[in-house]
Amino acid sequence: MTPAAIDTTILAVLAPFAAAAIAPYATRLFKHNAAWALALVPAWIFFHFAGFVGPVAEGRTFVAAREWAPAYGINLSFYIDGLSTLFALLISGIGTFIILYAGGYLKGHPQQGRFFSFLFLFMGAMLGLVTGDNLITLFIFWELTSITSFLLIGFDHLRAASRRAALQALVVTGGGGLALLAGFLLIIQATGEIEMSQVLKSGDLLREHALYLPIFLLVLGGAFTKSAQFPFHFWLPNAMEAPTPVSAFLHSATMVKAGVYLLMRMHPVLGGTEAWTTVLPLFGGATLLVGTILAVRQTDLKLMLAYTTVASLGLLVMLTGTSHEKALEGAVLYLLAHSLFKGALFMVAGTIDHEAGTRDVTRLGGLRKAMPITFAAAALAGLSMSGLPPFIGFIAKEVLYYGTWGLPQGALVLTVVAVVGNALMLVIAAGVAVKPFFGPEVHTPKHAHEGPILLWAGPVVLSLTGLATALMTHATGDLLIGPMLSSLVGAPTAVELHLLPGYISAPLILSAITVALGIVLFLQLDRLRATVAAVLAAIGWGPDKGFDQAIAAIVRLSAAVTRIVQGGRMQTYMTLTFLITALAVLVPGYLADGWPALPPLPPLHFYEWAVLLIAVAGLGAVLVASTRLTAIVSLGIQGFAVAMIFMLFGAPDLSFTQFMVETLSVVILALVMTRLNLAPRDHRDAAARLFTGAIAIGVGGGLALTLMAVTQAPFDTRLSEFFSAYSRTIAHGRNIVNVIIVDFRGFDTLGEIAVVVLAGLCVLALIRIRTRPDRDVAKDVAASARRVGEAAEVH
Question: In what residue span(s) does the MrpA C-terminal/MbhD domain sit (predicted)?
Answer without folding.
Answer: 614-676
